[in-house]
């Protein structure tokens, strides 16, 4: 499955990030709660090095609660500070603020103004998170990857400034699965991959993680025992995705299925477990 996306501005963004990290005291790394492993840029860990950091599992409202809890346990065991957040409703924001306060209060080595940086892949909700942290719409938000074009400093609260950075993907995914999951969740622009292939990949995950009932409930279908492409066809048939002559428009069905998932219409559904 060939989902690859690494335009020139990504390489430049990575170089800029390396420079920016020298200016900050704390790193807020934003992951997608549905795919904490796949949405984590492996380069970032090396770049952060020994800086103080908090891992934010954003969009927790779209992920399976039990699975997110397992991810939190997993990260905490690895001695990583993790917080599950819904940046649209501000759930979990208080915990991030408390952590920043803790650093300001306890670490005598810190200056009066603590500087932070927010990093993550495209479309993971960094801008919405900043708006919640700073309680104002200071960052542009959009559900298309690549809205944040350059770095910008934002005053979050007294004594804390945050540097926003554009979303960074990495040149080569460790496995094809990662590319598929990034495409499913919208981190890669739709026009850069085959929607049918990605939708079938999504259905494979649904079958593997026992979420088939979510599709059955949403579309009013009985899908047990069917293979992935057949399920896509059934969804298309049910939703009237038809071509001339009554053939099923599987491309349209794929787009509809992915959109329903991204909008949370299939319920809380995680794509990977720790």
Automatic annotation (TrEMBL):
Entries under Gene3D superfamilies matching the protein: 1.10.1580.10, P-loop containing nucleotide triphosphate hydrolases
GO MF terms, alphabetically ordered: GTP binding; GTPase activity
Alphabetized CDD domains for the sequence: YlqF
Annotated ranges, domain CP-type G: 14-171
GO cellular component: cytoplasm
Pfam family, one: MMR_HSR1
Residues binding GTP, per UniProt: 58-61, 86-87, 123-128, 167
Top-level lineage group: Bacteria
InterPro entries (UniProt xref): G_CP_dom, GTP-bd, GTP-bd_ortho_bundle_sf, GTP-bd_ribosome_bgen, GTPase_MTG1, P-loop_NTPase
Subcellular location(s) per record: Cytoplasm
Function: Required for a late step of 50S ribosomal subunit assembly. Has GTPase activity.
Name of the featured protein: Ribosome biogenesis GTPase A
UniProt organism field: Koleobacter methoxysyntrophicus
Organism lineage string: Bacteria, Bacillati, Bacillota, Clostridia, Koleobacterales
Gene that encodes the chain: rbgA
């Amino acid at each position: 499955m060939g989902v690859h996306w690494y335009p020139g501005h990504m390489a430049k963004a990575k170089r800029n990030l390396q420079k920016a990290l020298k200016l900050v005291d704390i790193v807020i790394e934003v992951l997608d709660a549905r795919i904490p492993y796949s949405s984590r840029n492996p380069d970032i860990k090396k770049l952060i090095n020994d800086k103080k950091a908090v891992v934010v599992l954003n969009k927790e409202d779209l992920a399976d609660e039990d699975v997110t809890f397992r991810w939190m346990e997993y990260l905490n065991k690895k001695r990583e500070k993790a917080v599950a957040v819904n940046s649209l409703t501000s759930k979990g924001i208080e915990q991030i603020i408390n952590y920043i306060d803790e650093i300001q209060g306890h670490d005598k080595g810190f200056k009066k103004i603590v500087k932070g940086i927010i990093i993550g892949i495209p479309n993971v909700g960094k801008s919405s998170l900043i708006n919640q942290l700073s309680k104002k719409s200071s960052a542009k938000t959009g559900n298309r990857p690549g809205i944040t074009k350059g770095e910008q400093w934002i005053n979050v609260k007294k004594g804390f400034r945050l540097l926003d950075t554009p979303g960074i993907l990495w040149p080569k995914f460790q496995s094809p699965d990662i590319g598929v999951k990034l495409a499913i969740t919208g981190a890669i622009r739709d026009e850069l991959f085959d929607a049918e292939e990605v939708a079938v990949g999504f259905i494979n995950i649904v079958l593997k993680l026992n979420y088939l009932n979510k599709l059955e409930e949403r579309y009013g279908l009985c899908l047990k025992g069917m293979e992935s492409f057949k399920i896509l066809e059934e969804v298309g048939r049910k939703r009237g995705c038809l071509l001339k002559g009554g053939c099923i428009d599987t491309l349209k069905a794929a787009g509809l299925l992915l959109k329903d998932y991204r909008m949370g219409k299939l319920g809380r559904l995680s794509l990977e477990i720790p």
